[in-house]
Amino acid sequence: MTLNIGVIGAGRIGKVHAENLATRVPGTAVGAIADVVLGSAQEVAARLHIPKVTADYREILRDPAIQAVAICSATDTHSQIIIEAAQAGKHIFCEKPIDFNLDRIDQALAAVEKAGVKLQIGFNRRFDANYARVRQAIASHEIGELHILHIISRDPGPPPVSYIKVSGGIFLDMSIHDFDMARFLTGSDAVEVYTVAGVKVDPAIGEAGDVDTAFVVMQFANGATVTIDNSRKAVYGYDQRVEAFGSAGAIATDNLYPNAAIISTAESIRRDLPLNFFMDRYTQSYEAEIRAFVEAVTQNKPIPVSGQDGRVPVVMGLAARKSHLEKRPVKLSEIG
Amino acid sequence: MTLNIGVIGAGRIGKVHAENLATRVPGTAVGAIADVVLGSAQEVAARLHIPKVTADYREILRDPAIQAVAICSATDTHSQIIIEAAQAGKHIFCEKPIDFNLDRIDQALAAVEKAGVKLQIGFNRRFDANYARVRQAIASHEIGELHILHIISRDPGPPPVSYIKVSGGIFLDMSIHDFDMARFLTGSDAVEVYTVAGVKVDPAIGEAGDVDTAFVVMQFANGATVTIDNSRKAVYGYDQRVEAFGSAGAIATDNLYPNAAIISTAESIRRDLPLNFFMDRYTQSYEAEIRAFVEAVTQNKPIPVSGQDGRVPVVMGLAARKSHLEKRPVKLSEIG
Amino acid sequence: MTLNIGVIGAGRIGKVHAENLATRVPGTAVGAIADVVLGSAQEVAARLHIPKVTADYREILRDPAIQAVAICSATDTHSQIIIEAAQAGKHIFCEKPIDFNLDRIDQALAAVEKAGVKLQIGFNRRFDANYARVRQAIASHEIGELHILHIISRDPGPPPVSYIKVSGGIFLDMSIHDFDMARFLTGSDAVEVYTVAGVKVDPAIGEAGDVDTAFVVMQFANGATVTIDNSRKAVYGYDQRVEAFGSAGAIATDNLYPNAAIISTAESIRRDLPLNFFMDRYTQSYEAEIRAFVEAVTQNKPIPVSGQDGRVPVVMGLAARKSHLEKRPVKLSEIG
Amino acid sequence: MTLNIGVIGAGRIGKVHAENLATRVPGTAVGAIADVVLGSAQEVAARLHIPKVTADYREILRDPAIQAVAICSATDTHSQIIIEAAQAGKHIFCEKPIDFNLDRIDQALAAVEKAGVKLQIGFNRRFDANYARVRQAIASHEIGELHILHIISRDPGPPPVSYIKVSGGIFLDMSIHDFDMARFLTGSDAVEVYTVAGVKVDPAIGEAGDVDTAFVVMQFANGATVTIDNSRKAVYGYDQRVEAFGSAGAIATDNLYPNAAIISTAESIRRDLPLNFFMDRYTQSYEAEIRAFVEAVTQNKPIPVSGQDGRVPVVMGLAARKSHLEKRPVKLSEIG
Fold this sequence. Notes:
The structure is a homotetramer of 336-residue chains. Chain A has 336 residues and is of the alpha/beta class. Chain A folds into two domains: 3-117, NAD(P)-binding Rossmann-like Domain (Rossmann fold, 3-Layer(aba) Sandwich); 126-282 and 312-334, Dihydrodipicolinate Reductase, domain 2 (2-Layer Sandwich), CATH 3.30.360. Helices cover 39% and strands 24% of the residues of chain A. The first copy, chain A, has 13 helices and 15 strands. In chain A, the strands form three sheets. A seven-stranded mixed sheet of chain A has the order 12-11-7-10-9-8-15. The N and C termini of chain A lie far apart (41 Å). The model of chain A has no long low-confidence stretch (mean pLDDT 96). Strand 13 (262-264) of chain A pairs antiparallel with strand 12 (249-252) of chain C.
């Protein structure tokens, strides 16, 4: 069986998924692509020999030859398209976040459950070889019982302030990846969150009502402490590392680099900067996650990142924001 | 001029200072050594050709040929000996902590001030080449404005529970080094402290009323966030690292190792464990700190670690403990 | 323009080139595939939608719609197919080595020159990001004038002895990559070669008339010394590194690893073994080299690895073997 | 028993030994120091409380209270002083090389043997923790049977040409350390030597009749190949590393650094340059070697670096030079 997928949204991430599905993932084909900017969809379709192109995603949902959709449209359309796709009986891969609003998330998850379709959320970093190795070390007790997990996640530079304003704020836009990583790596859930945050990178971000530097410390149900260190700007590039410490040892990952060369001169012993762009850093994980989705549908395997996995990091983000605003530890049970 | 120093206390750390003063530090001599266990003092004196040995430190304080003392006795005697040494007009090098009680610290500092003698506190890690390099990077703005500093400080194994009971607790016994390091590296002071802590290593530590695993996040006056990650037991050995992140870059230190060899086998690419014992890890810093004290006295230079530098980490430790007990952020101004 | 390529040979490397051409390289299409084992060609064709399949490569050469061929057949067929492809007016990408026999190489190169077609040899490692970085450092004088270059090239394990017997020997089968690397990195040519070699890995290799461990030191025309350290078996995996030293510095590369995680336990500080298989280690370079070939043909750019680049390493291999057999330095001018 | 040692020569290395003996090595005392420049000896004596000072080393040899001597004088005096010291019944620690002339070495060794005194040669690098770890890995078969050993040994900068002229040439002045290291690490002896060398660093060195860049490849009796890469000038500092490869793995050492800090900026990920001066790099080994000498004498243990260990590297140096001059492999049996 070949899984016939429609891609909804032909922006940066839609292109990545379409290309992986069309050229690298066996057992699947891209049967259609939609974008409100029709030209974008047409460009991708021509390059990848996608037979059907449309400006209206509902055309894809109505197409009985399409069995699944990859939702790569703007965040504020995700929950609505999930509901419609579920009602149309399509399996769904949806980019994170599902939504910033818990009610709309719950409505979308209810529609998915009612329709009995599969839903995978696009937390691609779970499929990165480095994080997968850390998860393995923790799950297999290679480092014993987990005591503390540090997540460092810094962007090479902030997005435009215009984006910041509609981003949902750093906790829902940026930390959300790390909240998911915390759950994935620990195999547990946060109980309480404490946040210290501020504006260090650009005052304009503060004027837009957001912060650009945040530190979150969380207590997890399994007894582990988890910290997240976020910055919108690391001048040396995309800084994505974790370090886990347990009763029998520790495991730490490094960034990925364009090459492994060490250069020694009269000034220093140095190497080139790490991969700077998340599309380069996580190339392999984007392919792996969509491959896992195709396998989950075609071979009826469990979905590796569930709808609930999409909902909880939003709760954590809301709790982290509340802690920042109220300057006190906040229990997740306060959020809902 | 040769500075004639009396060493008070011939235990582990007293031996280190006596040996450094006698054999490695120019411009000084050890004129006397005292220990309530006279045999310990005699053993050191014989080996290092120290002319005067006594079980009573007051003999040293009475000796007009002695110009300075190194107080290496039990913690609960520090403040009293400081007061008496100051009254006797001796310059003072005192192991940390001065005391666990702020009143007694204040009395000791008042005595020092009144006598006009010099007092240096033994926060030796400030003299370690790694931390000194990080301080240089921060002070010189090599990494720009400091945003966040992470301090990792884990012991290879917990001390006996009998010691734990009289140690003052993890925050005053172990974290106190890291509180000093936070102040030294940032060049600033803590405003607020939040602590997450628990018993992970040994239930007996909990039964003794202490914790063995602690995480502290602090807001500093200069705007930086500082975190401390303490554990009484890292199975791979003494784990002492810091990582500082700023607007223009980052600096991170590694542990020290007995050798730099990398061994590749059919199982892994590995290296030997780091230096496991604080006396090996910080050998060089013990020599450097006592050398700095001798220079400060003989050349009338400023003392690099003042009495106030000895007092503030105790305040921080009390705040961290209060935060842990009350499960809320605590301002240092609440402590005094 | 889309370059229509026929792939000759559907074995391991033929599959890699076919897949890259079909799915990753823009401006090209695989129009036909041939293999003497027809089933192999059919399997690849089905998976990649290649329209024409044949057991006889001459069918491809006769097809006017095919503009170029990728020769991925057995080594002893390379020179003959090059000659026929050139006579048919096809541009040629040919796996290394062209041949073990200098006369047949010369005949092939003459045919290519006469036909005026482009010929690129498949020394893929030139396109690896690590080696490219070293080349850049040398070419740009980032490390000044090159004094010495060390090439380490060790396989994870020897091929079957049946293969060893027809391989041409370690110098033409394995070192040949490193001879090319030496020329690529130095931008110069060898003048004299001295070899020390023996059987260390498996006596059966010696009984087959070959060695499995070889060390070659060469003097290059530009004054640099170049060394090659070859072993058929490194138990820790595929070991491919270079280190260049010059008047203004040095540059050294490391192996590539499946992940960057460092694991600390009570035994050691370790990481997982490096990528073990050349197809994993050089994945990116296979794509880059065939992409370069397509661009060279379609955009009429210079071929990055010429026929002469394919010939010289064979001369070097013959010289290295002669030095080994005669236990003396051998000038390349002795070979021809 | 306290071993009473006389130090002959109060230059750079004499000072190091005198200081270690006087302050760090238990069971010994420096009873006298001699230097033809009396002021140098007096300065050291005053600082270290050495009771006897003289410009004539024969005074030390005549002193019945002196049981051993450390010969740290100019190289061309070593063999003569060894002979006289042996005749005077003193145990001898002698800086390398014993001499450049094999006859004089043999006369010195004969005198030592006749007198029945102990003689240790100052190949301090054997006592360095990194090389000791490599020796352990090879001796314990941690990396299986040794196939190849690479020694990299580069100085931060050349000595003055005036020194070059009397140095004995690079092979006897600089490589001699590496010849000893090759024997120490392999536990075997060289059979044949091939050298490639030239003038790369400074033409004045060539005009003085020497080379400044040399590469030596050797076949050892145990079947291992050993290479030495020497340069008089590495702009990034003192570069001293080895890499051993065997049937069960590999071991490689790195340089030593003043700190372990990694600095990330917008330009690169870098660390400070390695320790630049051999006295800093090998501080610990100087103490360890003289401690071993004292223990060998006072506890009647075997001498760790024998007179023969001092002779063989001179033979190797002469063979390497001959190979360079005659441009062919040279057997050690050709030298004597």
